[in-house]
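re: ur msg from earlier - yeah i can do the beta-D-galactopyranose complex, just paste it... oh wait u already did. ok heres what im feeding in:
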Amino acid sequence: MRKLLKTKSVIVAGLLCTSSLAQAEEVEVLHWWTSGGEAAALNVLKDDLSGQGVGWTDMPVAGGGGEQAMTVLRARVTAGNAPTAVQGLGFDIQDWAAQGALADLNDVAAKEGWDNVVPDALKAFAKHDGKWVSAPVNVHSTNWVWANKAVLDANGIAQPASWDEFVAAVEALKAAGITPIAHGGQAWQDATIFDAVAMSTLGPDGYKAAFVDLDEGTLGGDAMKEAFDRMAFIRDNVDENFSGRDWNLATAMVINGEAGFQMMGDWAKGEFLNADKVPGEDFLCFRFPGTADQVTFNADQFMMFDQGGSVSAEQAALASAILSPAFQSAFNVVKGSVPARTDVSDADFDACGKQGMKDLAAAAASGNLFGSMAHGHAAPASVKNAVYDVVTAHFNGEYDSETAVVELVDAVSIAK
Ligand code: GAL
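and the outut:
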Protein backbone atom coordinates (compact mmCIF):
# COMPACT_ATOMS: atom_id res chain seq x y z
CA MET A 1 0.00 0.00 0.00
CA ARG A 2 2.79 2.39 0.98
CA LYS A 3 4.59 1.58 -2.21
CA LEU A 4 1.41 2.23 -4.17
CA LEU A 5 0.97 5.63 -2.50
CA LYS A 6 4.53 6.52 -3.26
CA THR A 7 4.15 5.54 -6.89
CA LYS A 8 0.96 7.59 -7.08
CA SER A 9 2.63 10.69 -5.69
CA VAL A 10 5.47 10.33 -8.16
CA ILE A 11 2.93 10.17 -10.98
CA VAL A 12 1.08 13.23 -9.61
CA ALA A 13 4.33 15.16 -9.27
CA GLY A 14 5.18 14.17 -12.85
CA LEU A 15 1.81 15.40 -14.10
CA LEU A 16 2.15 18.70 -12.26
CA CYS A 17 5.56 19.16 -13.75
CA THR A 18 4.29 18.45 -17.28
CA SER A 19 1.38 20.83 -16.90
CA SER A 20 3.46 23.70 -15.58
CA LEU A 21 5.89 23.16 -18.42
CA ALA A 22 3.01 23.20 -20.89
CA GLN A 23 1.70 26.40 -19.30
CA ALA A 24 5.07 28.00 -19.65
CA GLU A 25 5.11 27.34 -23.38
CA GLU A 26 1.68 28.45 -24.39
CA VAL A 27 -0.77 31.28 -24.17
CA GLU A 28 -4.42 30.93 -23.30
CA VAL A 29 -6.39 33.47 -25.29
CA LEU A 30 -9.96 34.50 -24.49
CA HIS A 31 -11.75 36.13 -27.44
CA TRP A 32 -15.07 36.37 -29.28
CA TRP A 33 -13.85 35.83 -32.83
CA THR A 34 -16.05 32.89 -33.75
CA SER A 35 -17.58 33.79 -37.15
CA GLY A 36 -16.02 32.45 -40.36
CA GLY A 37 -14.21 35.69 -41.21
CA GLU A 38 -13.09 36.28 -37.62
CA ALA A 39 -11.75 32.74 -37.25
CA ALA A 40 -9.83 33.07 -40.52
CA ALA A 41 -8.18 36.23 -39.20
CA LEU A 42 -7.39 34.65 -35.84
CA ASN A 43 -5.62 31.80 -37.62
CA VAL A 44 -3.09 34.33 -38.93
CA LEU A 45 -2.13 35.06 -35.31
CA LYS A 46 -2.16 31.39 -34.23
CA ASP A 47 0.11 30.45 -37.14
CA ASP A 48 2.47 33.32 -36.39
CA LEU A 49 2.89 32.16 -32.80
CA SER A 50 3.19 28.50 -33.62
CA GLY A 51 6.03 29.48 -36.00
CA GLN A 52 7.79 30.86 -32.89
CA GLY A 53 7.14 27.68 -30.89
CA VAL A 54 4.45 29.26 -28.68
CA GLY A 55 1.37 27.06 -28.22
CA TRP A 56 -2.19 28.36 -28.18
CA THR A 57 -5.05 27.33 -25.92
CA ASP A 58 -8.19 28.70 -27.46
CA MET A 59 -10.91 30.13 -25.21
CA PRO A 60 -13.60 31.37 -27.62
CA VAL A 61 -16.78 32.86 -26.15
CA ALA A 62 -19.31 33.44 -28.93
CA GLY A 63 -21.25 36.71 -28.99
CA GLY A 64 -20.47 39.67 -31.24
CA GLY A 65 -19.37 42.81 -29.45
CA GLY A 66 -17.90 40.70 -26.62
CA GLU A 67 -20.46 41.08 -23.81
CA GLN A 68 -20.56 37.35 -23.10
CA ALA A 69 -16.76 37.13 -23.28
CA MET A 70 -16.49 39.90 -20.68
CA THR A 71 -18.87 37.99 -18.36
CA VAL A 72 -16.69 34.89 -18.64
CA LEU A 73 -13.59 37.00 -18.03
CA ARG A 74 -15.00 38.46 -14.80
CA ALA A 75 -15.77 34.94 -13.55
CA ARG A 76 -12.25 33.73 -14.40
CA VAL A 77 -10.57 36.69 -12.69
CA THR A 78 -12.79 36.33 -9.61
CA ALA A 79 -11.79 32.67 -9.42
CA GLY A 80 -8.12 33.72 -9.49
CA ASN A 81 -7.61 32.08 -12.87
CA ALA A 82 -7.21 34.88 -15.41
CA PRO A 83 -6.34 33.81 -18.98
CA THR A 84 -2.95 34.88 -20.35
CA ALA A 85 -4.35 37.24 -22.95
CA VAL A 86 -7.84 38.61 -23.48
CA GLN A 87 -9.48 40.50 -26.34
CA GLY A 88 -10.61 43.83 -24.94
CA LEU A 89 -12.12 47.12 -26.03
CA GLY A 90 -11.60 50.73 -24.99
CA PHE A 91 -12.78 51.66 -21.51
CA ASP A 92 -12.85 47.99 -20.41
CA ILE A 93 -9.06 47.88 -20.82
CA GLN A 94 -8.66 50.96 -18.65
CA ASP A 95 -10.95 49.43 -15.99
CA TRP A 96 -8.86 46.27 -15.73
CA ALA A 97 -5.67 48.31 -15.65
CA ALA A 98 -7.04 50.51 -12.84
CA GLN A 99 -7.72 47.32 -10.86
CA GLY A 100 -4.07 46.34 -11.26
CA ALA A 101 -4.97 43.19 -13.21
CA LEU A 102 -2.78 43.80 -16.26
CA ALA A 103 0.91 43.13 -16.83
CA ASP A 104 3.34 45.92 -17.70
CA LEU A 105 4.40 45.73 -21.37
CA ASN A 106 6.73 48.74 -21.27
CA ASP A 107 9.91 46.74 -21.93
CA VAL A 108 8.69 45.20 -25.17
CA ALA A 109 6.98 48.47 -26.17
CA ALA A 110 10.19 50.46 -25.66
CA LYS A 111 12.32 47.89 -27.47
CA GLU A 112 10.00 48.00 -30.47
CA GLY A 113 9.19 51.72 -30.44
CA TRP A 114 5.40 51.37 -30.10
CA ASP A 115 5.13 54.97 -28.88
CA ASN A 116 6.26 56.25 -32.28
CA VAL A 117 3.90 54.21 -34.45
CA VAL A 118 0.66 53.67 -32.52
CA PRO A 119 -1.75 56.62 -32.91
CA ASP A 120 -2.77 58.64 -29.84
CA ALA A 121 -6.42 57.57 -30.16
CA LEU A 122 -5.33 53.98 -29.41
CA LYS A 123 -2.69 54.85 -26.82
CA ALA A 124 -5.47 56.48 -24.80
CA PHE A 125 -6.78 52.94 -24.17
CA ALA A 126 -3.61 50.82 -24.47
CA LYS A 127 -1.63 52.78 -21.86
CA HIS A 128 -2.51 53.36 -18.23
CA ASP A 129 -0.50 55.66 -15.95
CA GLY A 130 2.28 55.70 -18.55
CA LYS A 131 2.43 51.89 -18.82
CA TRP A 132 1.50 49.86 -21.88
CA VAL A 133 -1.06 47.30 -20.68
CA SER A 134 -2.41 45.92 -23.95
CA ALA A 135 -1.32 45.25 -27.51
CA PRO A 136 -3.46 46.95 -30.20
CA VAL A 137 -4.40 44.59 -33.01
CA ASN A 138 -6.40 46.78 -35.36
CA VAL A 139 -8.73 49.69 -35.90
CA HIS A 140 -12.30 48.92 -36.89
CA SER A 141 -14.97 51.49 -37.59
CA THR A 142 -18.70 51.24 -37.20
CA ASN A 143 -20.11 53.81 -39.65
CA TRP A 144 -20.13 51.56 -42.73
CA VAL A 145 -22.85 50.26 -45.02
CA TRP A 146 -22.44 46.97 -46.93
CA ALA A 147 -24.51 46.36 -50.05
CA ASN A 148 -25.09 43.54 -52.52
CA LYS A 149 -24.11 45.08 -55.85
CA ALA A 150 -26.13 42.74 -58.08
CA VAL A 151 -29.28 43.43 -56.03
CA LEU A 152 -28.76 47.18 -56.33
CA ASP A 153 -27.97 46.99 -60.06
CA ALA A 154 -31.00 44.79 -60.79
CA ASN A 155 -33.21 47.41 -59.15
CA GLY A 156 -31.60 50.44 -60.78
CA ILE A 157 -30.24 51.70 -57.43
CA ALA A 158 -27.01 53.71 -57.26
CA GLN A 159 -24.90 53.85 -54.11
CA PRO A 160 -26.83 56.27 -51.87
CA ALA A 161 -24.91 59.42 -50.90
CA SER A 162 -27.45 61.05 -48.57
CA TRP A 163 -30.10 59.94 -46.10
CA ASP A 164 -32.82 60.83 -48.62
CA GLU A 165 -31.17 58.71 -51.31
CA PHE A 166 -30.83 55.88 -48.79
CA VAL A 167 -34.55 56.14 -47.95
CA ALA A 168 -35.40 56.05 -51.69
CA ALA A 169 -33.18 52.98 -52.20
CA VAL A 170 -34.78 51.18 -49.27
CA GLU A 171 -38.29 51.98 -50.57
CA ALA A 172 -37.34 50.69 -54.03
CA LEU A 173 -36.09 47.39 -52.60
CA LYS A 174 -39.19 47.01 -50.50
CA ALA A 175 -41.39 47.61 -53.55
CA ALA A 176 -39.42 44.92 -55.37
CA GLY A 177 -40.11 42.43 -52.57
CA ILE A 178 -36.52 42.28 -51.28
CA THR A 179 -35.63 42.71 -47.62
CA PRO A 180 -34.05 46.17 -47.71
CA ILE A 181 -31.95 45.91 -44.53
CA ALA A 182 -30.35 42.81 -43.03
CA HIS A 183 -30.10 43.14 -39.27
CA GLY A 184 -29.76 41.09 -36.14
CA GLY A 185 -31.86 42.31 -33.23
CA GLN A 186 -29.29 42.23 -30.43
CA ALA A 187 -28.62 45.28 -28.28
CA TRP A 188 -25.03 45.72 -29.43
CA GLN A 189 -26.08 45.51 -33.11
CA ASP A 190 -28.88 48.06 -32.62
CA ALA A 191 -26.32 50.31 -30.92
CA THR A 192 -23.78 49.79 -33.73
CA ILE A 193 -26.29 51.21 -36.22
CA PHE A 194 -27.08 53.99 -33.75
CA ASP A 195 -23.40 55.12 -33.74
CA ALA A 196 -23.66 55.97 -37.44
CA VAL A 197 -27.24 57.25 -37.39
CA ALA A 198 -26.53 59.57 -34.46
CA MET A 199 -23.38 60.86 -36.16
CA SER A 200 -25.45 61.62 -39.27
CA THR A 201 -28.00 63.77 -37.40
CA LEU A 202 -25.85 65.24 -34.60
CA GLY A 203 -22.70 65.91 -36.63
CA PRO A 204 -19.24 65.45 -35.11
CA ASP A 205 -19.59 68.14 -32.43
CA GLY A 206 -22.97 66.82 -31.36
CA TYR A 207 -21.73 63.20 -31.30
CA LYS A 208 -18.89 64.20 -28.99
CA ALA A 209 -21.16 66.35 -26.81
CA ALA A 210 -23.67 63.50 -26.42
CA PHE A 211 -21.53 60.39 -26.07
CA VAL A 212 -18.16 61.60 -24.82
CA ASP A 213 -19.12 64.67 -22.75
CA LEU A 214 -22.57 63.23 -21.89
CA ASP A 215 -24.17 66.65 -22.28
CA GLU A 216 -27.84 66.49 -21.30
CA GLY A 217 -28.99 69.16 -23.74
CA THR A 218 -27.53 67.20 -26.66
CA LEU A 219 -28.69 63.81 -25.39
CA GLY A 220 -32.21 65.18 -25.14
CA GLY A 221 -32.17 67.54 -28.13
CA ASP A 222 -33.93 67.66 -31.50
CA ALA A 223 -31.05 66.10 -33.45
CA MET A 224 -31.15 63.10 -31.09
CA LYS A 225 -34.89 62.76 -31.65
CA GLU A 226 -34.20 62.83 -35.39
CA ALA A 227 -31.69 59.98 -34.87
CA PHE A 228 -34.39 57.92 -33.17
CA ASP A 229 -36.79 58.71 -36.05
CA ARG A 230 -34.19 57.34 -38.49
CA MET A 231 -33.80 54.24 -36.30
CA ALA A 232 -37.58 53.74 -36.52
CA PHE A 233 -37.38 53.89 -40.32
CA ILE A 234 -34.61 51.27 -40.26
CA ARG A 235 -36.69 49.09 -37.92
CA ASP A 236 -39.57 49.26 -40.39
CA ASN A 237 -37.36 47.88 -43.13
CA VAL A 238 -35.78 44.78 -41.59
CA ASP A 239 -37.30 41.34 -42.11
CA GLU A 240 -39.66 39.85 -39.54
CA ASN A 241 -37.12 37.29 -38.29
CA PHE A 242 -34.50 39.85 -37.28
CA SER A 243 -34.83 39.37 -33.54
CA GLY A 244 -31.79 37.74 -31.92
CA ARG A 245 -30.06 36.99 -35.24
CA ASP A 246 -26.24 36.94 -35.12
CA TRP A 247 -24.55 39.72 -37.08
CA ASN A 248 -22.73 37.36 -39.43
CA LEU A 249 -26.02 35.72 -40.44
CA ALA A 250 -27.30 39.18 -41.33
CA THR A 251 -24.14 39.69 -43.41
CA ALA A 252 -24.84 36.35 -45.11
CA MET A 253 -28.26 37.67 -46.18
CA VAL A 254 -26.52 40.47 -48.08
CA ILE A 255 -23.87 38.09 -49.45
CA ASN A 256 -26.60 35.74 -50.74
CA GLY A 257 -28.74 38.51 -52.24
CA GLU A 258 -31.59 38.03 -49.76
CA ALA A 259 -31.17 41.61 -48.57
CA GLY A 260 -29.81 44.85 -49.99
CA PHE A 261 -27.92 46.53 -47.16
CA GLN A 262 -26.37 45.92 -43.77
CA MET A 263 -25.10 48.68 -41.47
CA MET A 264 -22.25 47.12 -39.55
CA GLY A 265 -18.61 47.62 -38.60
CA ASP A 266 -15.97 46.52 -41.07
CA TRP A 267 -15.64 43.07 -39.47
CA ALA A 268 -18.55 42.40 -41.90
CA LYS A 269 -16.04 42.63 -44.73
CA GLY A 270 -14.28 39.58 -43.29
CA GLU A 271 -17.45 37.58 -44.01
CA PHE A 272 -17.64 38.78 -47.63
CA LEU A 273 -13.98 37.87 -48.18
CA ASN A 274 -14.45 34.51 -46.48
CA ALA A 275 -17.21 33.84 -49.05
CA ASP A 276 -14.80 34.80 -51.88
CA LYS A 277 -16.64 38.02 -52.69
CA VAL A 278 -14.83 40.97 -54.24
CA PRO A 279 -15.39 44.63 -53.29
CA GLY A 280 -16.70 46.77 -56.16
CA GLU A 281 -17.76 43.63 -58.07
CA ASP A 282 -19.91 41.63 -55.66
CA PHE A 283 -20.40 44.08 -52.84
CA LEU A 284 -20.10 47.77 -52.05
CA CYS A 285 -18.71 49.38 -48.91
CA PHE A 286 -19.46 53.00 -48.17
CA ARG A 287 -19.81 55.30 -45.20
CA PHE A 288 -23.25 55.67 -43.69
CA PRO A 289 -24.92 58.58 -45.55
CA GLY A 290 -24.06 61.87 -43.89
CA THR A 291 -20.89 60.54 -42.18
CA ALA A 292 -18.44 60.50 -45.10
CA ASP A 293 -15.89 62.65 -43.27
CA GLN A 294 -16.20 61.02 -39.85
CA VAL A 295 -14.94 57.77 -38.40
CA THR A 296 -16.44 56.15 -35.30
CA PHE A 297 -13.76 53.67 -34.35
CA ASN A 298 -13.15 50.73 -32.09
CA ALA A 299 -9.84 48.95 -31.72
CA ASP A 300 -9.41 45.34 -30.64
CA GLN A 301 -6.51 44.90 -28.27
CA PHE A 302 -5.09 41.99 -26.32
CA MET A 303 -4.82 42.74 -22.63
CA MET A 304 -2.10 40.71 -20.96
CA PHE A 305 -3.31 39.59 -17.54
CA ASP A 306 -0.75 39.63 -14.75
CA GLN A 307 0.12 36.00 -14.02
CA GLY A 308 1.86 36.94 -10.76
CA GLY A 309 5.17 38.66 -11.46
CA SER A 310 6.49 40.35 -14.53
CA VAL A 311 5.19 39.81 -18.03
CA SER A 312 5.91 36.23 -19.17
CA ALA A 313 8.07 35.37 -22.18
CA GLU A 314 4.97 34.05 -23.96
CA GLN A 315 3.00 37.24 -23.31
CA ALA A 316 5.90 39.30 -24.62
CA ALA A 317 6.09 37.06 -27.71
CA LEU A 318 2.36 37.45 -28.32
CA ALA A 319 2.49 41.23 -27.89
CA SER A 320 5.49 41.50 -30.16
CA ALA A 321 3.87 39.31 -32.84
CA ILE A 322 0.71 41.44 -32.75
CA LEU A 323 2.55 44.72 -33.26
CA SER A 324 4.85 43.50 -36.02
CA PRO A 325 4.19 45.39 -39.28
CA ALA A 326 3.95 42.16 -41.31
CA PHE A 327 1.30 40.76 -38.96
CA GLN A 328 -0.59 44.06 -38.90
CA SER A 329 -0.97 43.86 -42.65
CA ALA A 330 -1.63 40.11 -42.97
CA PHE A 331 -4.20 39.99 -40.16
CA ASN A 332 -6.13 43.15 -41.00
CA VAL A 333 -6.37 42.29 -44.70
CA VAL A 334 -8.40 39.24 -43.63
CA LYS A 335 -10.27 40.76 -40.66
CA GLY A 336 -11.71 43.81 -42.46
CA SER A 337 -10.05 46.25 -40.06
CA VAL A 338 -7.03 48.49 -40.71
CA PRO A 339 -3.62 48.48 -38.99
CA ALA A 340 -3.10 49.82 -35.48
CA ARG A 341 0.22 51.30 -36.62
CA THR A 342 0.52 54.34 -38.86
CA ASP A 343 3.53 53.01 -40.82
CA VAL A 344 2.00 49.96 -42.52
CA SER A 345 1.62 50.01 -46.32
CA ASP A 346 -1.86 49.70 -47.81
CA ALA A 347 -0.49 47.71 -50.77
CA ASP A 348 -2.02 44.37 -49.75
CA PHE A 349 -5.43 45.83 -48.82
CA ASP A 350 -8.48 45.71 -51.09
CA ALA A 351 -10.44 48.81 -52.12
CA CYS A 352 -12.49 48.92 -48.88
CA GLY A 353 -9.36 48.49 -46.77
CA LYS A 354 -7.53 51.22 -48.68
CA GLN A 355 -10.52 53.52 -48.16
CA GLY A 356 -10.63 52.59 -44.47
CA MET A 357 -6.95 53.51 -44.03
CA LYS A 358 -7.39 56.78 -45.91
CA ASP A 359 -10.56 57.70 -43.98
CA LEU A 360 -8.89 56.96 -40.65
CA ALA A 361 -5.85 59.11 -41.39
CA ALA A 362 -8.01 61.97 -42.71
CA ALA A 363 -10.43 61.81 -39.76
CA ALA A 364 -7.55 61.79 -37.26
CA ALA A 365 -5.96 64.80 -38.97
CA SER A 366 -9.19 66.84 -39.18
CA GLY A 367 -10.48 66.10 -35.66
CA ASN A 368 -13.24 63.85 -36.99
CA LEU A 369 -12.16 60.61 -35.31
CA PHE A 370 -14.42 59.56 -32.41
CA GLY A 371 -14.66 56.49 -30.23
CA SER A 372 -17.62 54.21 -30.95
CA MET A 373 -20.29 54.39 -28.25
CA ALA A 374 -21.55 50.93 -29.18
CA HIS A 375 -18.11 49.34 -28.81
CA GLY A 376 -16.93 50.91 -25.59
CA HIS A 377 -14.69 53.67 -26.94
CA ALA A 378 -16.82 56.75 -26.15
CA ALA A 379 -17.82 56.20 -22.53
CA PRO A 380 -17.40 53.57 -19.77
CA ALA A 381 -19.44 50.35 -19.77
CA SER A 382 -22.11 51.66 -17.39
CA VAL A 383 -23.01 54.50 -19.79
CA LYS A 384 -22.70 52.25 -22.83
CA ASN A 385 -25.15 49.78 -21.29
CA ALA A 386 -27.58 52.60 -20.45
CA VAL A 387 -27.52 53.71 -24.11
CA TYR A 388 -27.98 50.09 -25.25
CA ASP A 389 -31.11 49.75 -23.10
CA VAL A 390 -32.80 52.85 -24.51
CA VAL A 391 -31.78 52.25 -28.14
CA THR A 392 -33.02 48.66 -28.03
CA ALA A 393 -36.27 49.47 -26.23
CA HIS A 394 -36.99 52.12 -28.88
CA PHE A 395 -35.98 49.78 -31.72
CA ASN A 396 -38.41 47.19 -30.41
CA GLY A 397 -41.25 49.70 -30.26
CA GLU A 398 -41.35 50.21 -26.50
CA TYR A 399 -40.75 53.97 -26.81
CA ASP A 400 -41.55 56.50 -29.51
CA SER A 401 -38.71 58.89 -30.42
CA GLU A 402 -39.88 61.62 -28.08
CA THR A 403 -39.95 59.25 -25.10
CA ALA A 404 -36.61 57.74 -26.14
CA VAL A 405 -34.71 61.04 -25.79
CA VAL A 406 -36.20 61.62 -22.34
CA GLU A 407 -35.26 58.07 -21.31
CA LEU A 408 -31.77 58.52 -22.76
CA VAL A 409 -31.11 61.62 -20.66
CA ASP A 410 -32.35 59.81 -17.53
CA ALA A 411 -30.50 56.56 -18.18
CA VAL A 412 -27.18 58.29 -18.88
CA SER A 413 -27.46 60.58 -15.88
CA ILE A 414 -28.04 57.59 -13.58
CA ALA A 415 -25.18 55.62 -15.17
CA LYS A 416 -22.48 58.28 -15.20
C1 GAL B 1 -16.42 43.93 -32.14
C2 GAL B 1 -14.97 43.63 -32.36
C3 GAL B 1 -14.75 43.15 -33.74
C4 GAL B 1 -15.75 42.10 -34.17
C5 GAL B 1 -17.18 42.40 -33.69
C6 GAL B 1 -18.18 41.30 -33.92
O1 GAL B 1 -16.63 44.35 -30.82
O2 GAL B 1 -14.22 44.78 -32.15
O3 GAL B 1 -13.44 42.66 -33.88
O4 GAL B 1 -15.33 40.90 -33.74
O5 GAL B 1 -17.21 42.78 -32.36
O6 GAL B 1 -17.87 40.15 -33.20
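cool cool. The chain has two domains: 2-140+298-356, 141-296+366-415. ping me if u need the other ligands too
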